[in-house]
Design goal:
mainly alpha; Protein Binding, DinI Protein, Chain A; two-stranded antiparallel ribbon; 4 strands
Length: 233
């Protein structure tokens, strides 16, 4: 989930320039867009996280390469966001997002009303009075920009607070599956063009996470040449 500014004034699309060369008759409308986890920015984020995960769970060495590696894949993005905690995090962030958007809408409506009042009185007041009121409006617009930035930081901080623990636990589950099922390497699904479904451990990660991570995957077969355990031992 990420939040971006949209500026409605013709020819301008960035909040950063909304208060620069803005025509006096324009009152910018600031909105957020609540992007789903499959947005390009989030995909880049999970690509980076997936690279970290790959580095954490990779156990390949020269002997493994000679013997033939067992490679698995995990959809890091889906594994994090479709756990019960991930779904709750999304709902919590959406609720906070909606609350902050309503506050922005109220502030913007007030500024728009002030601008309309100034326009109506423009011919009845002096040039100095008009300039003073417009400067005051400009100041309030700048303050609103600062509020927007603060809200963005608040939401990003909350997102990190809610999703980082989920990712860390998913990494631990992937490492456990890789060890017990004999995977030499687990890569992020976003980095490969094709994978057999039986090598995809995403659903297993989500299930283990939701069950508390206590379930034990099937142990990997003993290395060739190793004695099989005797019955009752």
């Amino acid at each position: 989930m990420v939040w971006t500014a949209v500026h409605s004034a013709p020819g301008e699309s960035r909040l950063a320039v909304a208060f620069g060369e803005r025509h006096p008759s324009e009152v910018p409308h600031l909105t957020w867009t609540f992007e789903a986890a499959n947005s390009p920015r989030m995909q880049r984020l999970f690509f980076v996280l997936g690279a970290v995960l790959l580095a954490l769970v990779s156990t390949t060495d020269a002997r493994a390469e000679q013997a033939g590696m067992k490679v698995g894949v995990v959809d890091v993005q889906r594994a994090v966001m479709q756990t019960e905690d991930g779904l709750r995090a999304t709902a919590t962030l959406k609720k906070l997002f909606d609350s902050r958007q309503q506050e922005l809408n109220r502030k913007q409506a007030d500024l728009q009303k002030q601008k309309e009042d100034i326009d109506k009185q423009a011919r009845a007041i002096s040039k100095d009075a008009y300039t003073k009121r417009m400067e005051d409006l400009q100041k309030q617009l700048m303050e609103l920009q600062a509020v927007f930035v603060d809200y963005n930081k608040e939401l990003e901080k909350k997102q990190k607070e809610l999703t980082d623990p989920v990712f860390e636990k998913i990494v631990g589950i992937v490492k456990r599956i890789a060890t017990t099922e004999g995977f030499d390497l687990v890569v992020d699904k976003a980095t490969v063009a094709y994978v057999r479904t039986d090598l995809d451990i995403t659903d297993k990660c989500i299930t283990l996470y939701n069950s508390g991570g206590s379930a034990s995957p099937t142990p990997a077969p003993a290395p060739s040449g190793a004695p099989a355990p005797s019955a009752g031992h």
